[in-house]
Design brief:
The protein is α/β, with parallel strands linked by helices. It has 15 helices and 22 strands. Helix 1 runs parallel beside helix 7 and helix 9 crosses helix 10. The chain binds nicotinamide-adenine-dinucleotide (NAD).
């Protein structure tokens, strides 16, 4: 059976999902298919009143349903049923995602959907295992740390992996006993809406999962600033993350998890397996058209192997061709929008004007979709635009080093610290790199997340605050209360 489908066939139902029901809303923002540029749907923009309604409904549902105080295994079981339903509706969800986003139907079925279901199961299983603690006190006293859900968590997700980001945010918040009001990216709302609808079918009480549609300045702002939002969980750009911090600071004090941008280095030492390193580097920058927060966009190679590595990279980067996201054989993603592609190109042009040499790429692909050629730039200094800025496209820079100290100095980015890759066969050098590189994740002789959801993900510096995934994400959705009893 082929996974290819007609992009006009999915039903792009678009309204806010509040209290377990859809609310019709006028589409305001027009949406284009990134694979071929065709306009296909619209997205409404929830104003402060709609957001207020969703938060009130969520708050009431969280209290009245007993979701936060029930036997935790009941939450586990409902979340496990949700994960099963997501897998049973994999094709429908993948189709809703493949048309508006840069995700490809084949990758969605093999990756995103299965991973989302697994992540929900991971957090479901924590609900009846993670608790507080009894602490040491004097014998005539009893000390406890108990944990409780926050109440209503606001979640805001980007367009680059809409379904799995929705899973990252909702699963730990729900497992920990909270209700959620989620605002997906205005460009990719459809699969998230269907996922929310399935939560009710799974037995998660209506009102626990709510989705409001809209942009950042109107809907996002109303949501993060709402007085009954007890915690904010955001994934997106560093610029939007700092706007959210400022808005929250203006309207109250609440904890925030911020998963933000990156400019991650991949350091290749002279003793590395070059075929492996080239393969990992090329895959990391080609995957989703370079539109991944952890894209390893800065290659830092020892001068003795830099030429061989760049030859290998040029060959691997020449391979992908443009294709439609809804055709099974497509392997290369477009930029999300014409605007994003124009931004990628203008950053590449700025880099060239500042002295960068083009080894391959540096222009749009000849296709009606928003495709950009995989691009490799060299002769770039630390303050070149292509080294400094998160391009969020298929653009790699190549810098060289002589000594280990030079390698680690180049790996250090003034702003970002999300992830890093290190390629070497020397175990002590590999272990040293753990402390020499400031990043929330280090991959050695590999690049990219595995399906081990126990490993938290999050950034150092302006790449973020707090962690998604792992036990950390579960605990970030509960607050602790200290109790001391005189016996
Ligand atoms: P974006 O910041 O433009 O938008 C992300 C979300 O935030 C969208 O839903 C948007 O509507 C909303 N938003 C924007 N401004 C807002 C505001 N002032 N208040 C509230 N909400 C607001 O990011 P994007 O272009 O959708 O996604 C790409 C960015 O996301 C990249 O920078 C990428 O590195 C980052 N990202 C990070 C991670 C991570 O785990 N660190 C994962 C995926 C993406």
């Amino acid at each position: 059976m082929t996974l290819s489908f007609d992009p006009a066939s999915p039903s792009f139902r678009c309204g806010h999902f509040i209290g377990g029901a859809f609310e019709a809303a006028e589409p305001v923002l027009s949406l284009h298919r990134p694979s071929d540029g065709v306009e296909f749907a619209g997205c409404p923009v929830a104003d402060a009143d709609v957001v207020d309604k969703a938060v009130r409904v969520a708050r009431r549902a969280q209290k009245d349903s007993g979701w936060g105080t029930c036997r935790p295994r009941e939450r586990t079981n409902a979340l496990l049923r949700w994960a099963d339903l997501i897998e049973q509706h994999a094709l429908e969800l993948a189709q809703l995602e493949a048309v508006p986003s840069t995700r490809l139907i084949g990758q969605l079925i093999a990756g995103d959907i299965a991973v989302t279901a697994e992540q929900i199961r991971f957090f479901a299983e924590l609900a009846d295992k993670e608790g507080g603690e009894v602490v040491p006190t004097a014998g005539n006293q009893f000390g406890l740390i108990v944990t409780e859900p926050y109440g209503v968590v606001a979640a805001i997700t980007p367009w680059n992996f809409p379904l799995s980001m929705a899973g990252w945010k909702m699963a730990p918040a729900l497992a920990a006993g909270n209700a959620v009001v989620l605002k997906p990216s205005e460009m990719t709302p459809f699969a998230t809406l269907r996922m929310a609808e399935l939560s009710v079918e799974a037995g998660i009480p209506a009102g626990l999962v709510n989705v409001v549609l809209g942009d950042g300045p109107v809907t996002g702002n109303a949501l993060t600033g709402h007085p009954n939002i007890a915690k904010v969980s955001f994934t997106g750009s560093t610029g939007a993350g700092s706007a959210i911090m400022a808005n929250v600071a203006r309207t109250g004090i609440k904890p925030m998890t911020l998963e933000l941008g990156g400019k991650s280095p991949q350091v290749v030492f002279a003793d590395a397996d070059l075929a492996l390193a080239a393969d990992c580097i090329a895959r990391s920058i080609l995957f989703n058209g370079g539109q991944a927060c952890v894209a390893g966009s800065r290659v830092i190679a020892h001068e003795s192997i830099a030429d061989e590595l760049s030859d290998r990279l040029i060959k691997l980067m020449a391979q992908p061709g443009p294709g439609l996201g809804w055709e099974e054989e497509t392997t290369y993603s477009p930029c999300i929008s014409a605007r994003q592609r124009a931004r990628v190109h203008s950053l590449v042009q700025a880099a060239i004007e500042e002295g960068a040499e083009v080894l391959t790429g540096a222009r749009d692909m000849d296709h009606p979709g928003y495709f950009y050629q995989p691009t490799l730039l060299t002769n770039v200094s630390q303050d070149n635009t292509a080294v400094r800025e998160e391009v969020f496209g298929p653009v790699l820079t190549l810098q060289t080093f002589g000594t280990e100290d030079e390698a680690f100095a180049l790996a250090d980015h003034p702003t970002y610290g999300l992830a890093a890759g290190v390629y070497t066969r020397d175990v002590s050098r590999a272990l040293k790199s753990l402390h020499r590189i400031e990043a929330g994740t280090i991959w050695i002789n590999r690049y990219g997340r595995s399906r081990d959801h126990i490993l938290p993900t999050g950034g150092y510096k302006s790449s973020g605050i707090g962690k998604d995934l792992g036990r950390d994400a579960y605990h970030a959705n509960r607050r602790s209360k200290s109790v001391l009893i005189d016996l």
